[in-house]
Amino acid sequence: MNNALNAIKRCPWCGDAPDYQKYHDEVWGRPVYDSHELFAKLCLDGQQAGLSWITILRKQLAYEEAFLQFNPERLHAIQGAERESFVERQMQNAGIVRNRLKINSIFRNADGYMALQDGGEDFSEFLWQFVGGRVVDVKPNKMADIPTQTPASEAMSKALKKTGFNFVGPTICYAFMQAVGMVNDHLQDCHVRTHSK
Fold first, then answer.
1. What is the pTM of this model?
2. pLDDT at 197 (0 to 100)
């Protein structure tokens, strides 16, 4: 069965690992419009900085359990000494990446999310505006055709940082845009693309 799975044409970045192939086939590149889901994915992509995505993917459940299912309202409500205590507990959590700056970034991002919401901005609409509200179909033939950042990801990064988010550089933002389907970077011969035509 595994041989049959591997025989399917996929984008080569997901390799042979079944969990990575499943993520590629069922999650990566499929448009996401739910604000909370987008927030969670952006936070997880920030945790990836300096690491491979598969590392974070395999820790996703632990992150969701540790960070209140990435509920920005609940995270933002944790302030002051309570937040400091929360961070200290997570620094002992072997299920996540124990990096204080990255742990704090999830709270900073929740604060930014709530600042946008309090200003009347819908988070999903705020993010999708950088691609004009529609999927950008890149149609790459090979991995070398896929950029690591674009003017749109640079603009998103700048706007998010202005709102208080961090670990949202233009490369992280582009990886996020790929993952949540703002851009379609599945290779032309990838089965996900050919089956969705």
1. 0.93
2. 46
